[in-house]
């Protein structure tokens, strides 16, 4: 197959982790006889430095004209970087939000799975982590608080800031359908997370999710308040299969879910619209503090590349080969530093970002060959 992939390496560790994902993809191509035509575009701080804006119209076009986008991460240190002295619409994150909106990427899939090999790195009690967990957070990505009207103004001698949280029925319905569809391919359980005891938007969310559920008699549905969900994630993550939630709750809960997998460096994501097109990126940020040191964990980006092969290109065997390579590398005891607790270093072979990429690429095999 010939694939057209636009890469957004971005800022911080972004370029390093995308380079490793490409290494792995190149090996997949040579093993399985595919070809990827890449194009690199700027987004985030690097785009601000080069063009004055976090995302140019040409960059959006370069993403639209590809089959898929593979991204690293964007942004810098929000306290020290000059990018955060700019007005909000010119900051790095505004580029990512604009791209998601321009491409209508309303469905964000964030799987959180505890590899048995990483049980020791899981910060939860052993009695909890030994049960393992395998959940998928379905986060609404183009509505809610991050896209509502906002303002900061002076009123009666003091500053007042307003953010609005708005959801249309149609926006809730389409993400709920995605959640139930994916639940049908998993353990057939959806937990929908909201704050219906306080928010109108959550009450509408619940109503629409109930309506969508009627078309999926085989799937069980439970509603959970977001504060309780935050607690349940650390109490018993094994209870979750598909977690359906709105934009900001999904942003927060997915960071929490990633941490209990052992490291935020393990969590991939896919952002999809109603076509086969997708944007694939790790759920973690640009980690400017460790950028350029070859110590970042590239696994979340490599697994995002696997999601790209699966969801955009329907290349399941190829995606499996990447996931299998990750399992093998962990089983063989290789770890980036984020995956090792203090004091346990001698039990593992510590490797850098680039070496981890090499190890993963070496383990990509086409069983038919
Ligand atoms: C994420 C990030 C982004 C978000 C930021 C960088 C705008 O935290 O993808 O989770 O909040 O969506
Ligand atoms: Mg986030």
If you had to describe this structure to a student in words, what would you say it looks like?
With 369 residues, the protein is α/β, with parallel strands linked by helices. The protein folds into two domains: 1-106 and 268-369, Isopropylmalate Dehydrogenase (3-Layer(aba) Sandwich), CATH 3.40.718.10; 123-260, 3-Layer(aba) Sandwich (Isopropylmalate Dehydrogenase), CATH 3.40.718.10. Helix content is 38%, strand content 20%. It has twelve helices and 14 strands. It has helices at residues 14-32, 45-51, 57-64, 92-102, 126-129, 169-184, 200-213, 226-235, 247-259, 299-311, 316-331, 353-362, and strands at 2-10, 35-40, 68-73, 107-113, 134-140, 150-155, 158-163, 189-194, 220-225, 242-245, 270-272, 278-280, 334-335, 349-350. The strands form three sheets. It has a ten-stranded mixed β-sheet with strand order 2-1-3-12-11-4-5-10-8-9, sandwiched between helices. A two-stranded antiparallel ribbon has the order 6-7. It has a two-stranded parallel ribbon with strand order 13-14. A hairpin with a 2-residue loop joins strand 6 and strand 7 (158-163). The two termini are 17 Å apart. The relative contact order is 0.16. The mean pLDDT is 96. Bound molecules: 3-isopropylmalic acid and magnesium ion. 3-isopropylmalic acid binds at residues 75, 93, 96-97, 251, 283.
């Amino acid at each position: 197959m010939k694939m057209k992939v636009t890469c957004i390496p971005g800022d911080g560790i972004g370029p390093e982790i995308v380079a490793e994902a490409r290494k792995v993809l190149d090996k997949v191509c040579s093993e399985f006889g595919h070809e990827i035509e890449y194009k690199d575009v700027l987004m985030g701080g690097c785009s601000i430095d080069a063009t004055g804006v976090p995302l140019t119209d040409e960059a959006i076009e370069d993403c639209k004209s590809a089959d898929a986008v593979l991204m690293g991460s964007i942004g810098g240190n929000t306290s020290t970087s000059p990018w955060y002295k700019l007005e909000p619409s010119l900051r790095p994150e505004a580029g990512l939000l604009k791209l998601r909106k321009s491409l209508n990427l309303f469905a964000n899939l964030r799987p959180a799975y505890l590899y048995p090999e990483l049980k020791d790195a899981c910060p939860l009690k052993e009695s909890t982590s030994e049960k393992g967990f395998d959940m998928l957070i379905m986060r609404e990505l183009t509505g809610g608080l991050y896209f509502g009207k906002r303002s900061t103004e002076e009123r009666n001698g003091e500053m007042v800031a307003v953010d609005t949280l708005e959801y249309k029925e149609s926006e809730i319905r389409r993400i709920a359908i995605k959640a139930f569809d994916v639940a049908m391919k998993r353990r057939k359980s959806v937990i929908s997370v909201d704050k219906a005891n306080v928010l109108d938007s959550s009450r509408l969310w619940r109503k629409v999710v109930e309506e969508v559920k009627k078309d999926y008699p085989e799937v069980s549905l439970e509603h959970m308040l977001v504060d309780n969900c935050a607690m349940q994630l650390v109490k018993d993550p094994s209870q979750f299969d598909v977690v359906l939630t709105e934009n900001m709750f999904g942003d927060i809960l997915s960071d929490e879910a990633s941490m209990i997998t052992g490291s935020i460096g393990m969590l991939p994501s896919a952002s999809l619209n109603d076509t086969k097109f997708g944007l694939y990126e790790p759920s973690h940020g640009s980690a400017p503090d460790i950028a350029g040191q070859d110590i970042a964990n590239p696994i979340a980006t490599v697994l995002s590349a696997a999601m790209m092969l699966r969801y955009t290109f329907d290349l399941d065997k190829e995606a499996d080969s990447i996931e299998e390579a990750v399992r093998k590398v962990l089983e063989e005891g290789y770890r980036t530093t984020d995956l090792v607790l203090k004091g346990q270093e001698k039990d593992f072979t510590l490797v850098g970002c680039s070496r981890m990429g090499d190890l993963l690429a070496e383990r990509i095999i086409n069983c038919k060959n």
